[in-house]
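Wed. Picked up where I left off yesterday with Chemotaxis protein CheW. The coffee machine is broken again, so keeping this brief.
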Amino acid sequence: MSSNEVKILIFGLNGEHYATDIKEVERILGYEEPTILPDSPSFVKGVINYEQSILPIISLSKKFNFGEDEENENRKIIVVKRDENKFGIIVENVYEVRDVSSDLMEEAPPITATIDKRYIAGLIKLKDNIVILLDLEKILSSEDEEKIF
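Structure written out below (tokens, as returned):
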């Protein structure tokens, strides 16, 4: 991998391809139904037991106002590392891990109004489609974190 390449994890959400820098990912888990917590933010699906601790599970579909998560047998939970905190995000499926040249990345245009632009690190032009690169560091605001952790 050369210095102008980034290793990304590509996953599906709301029928589209999204990606994140693999450095933000700790592990990919099979889907398990989270335990629902009362009075939690609407995008928090609940919690699961993970490595002898409690892992909050976040629905990106709810966070991005896409509606409910699509239920299918390919669903996964991606465990995201953020400082000392960890959380899981529900995705429709995980496609691949690949190296992408920074030449293929572009800044997100202003038209990306469906998702708050602060979450989008850029767009990646691949042969068969465009992948939205998310900045998972910015998915949770500090207010969100206070409610969750």
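Quick read: Residues 5-148 form a domain with the OB fold (Dihydrolipoamide Acetyltransferase, E2P) fold (CATH 2.40.50.180).
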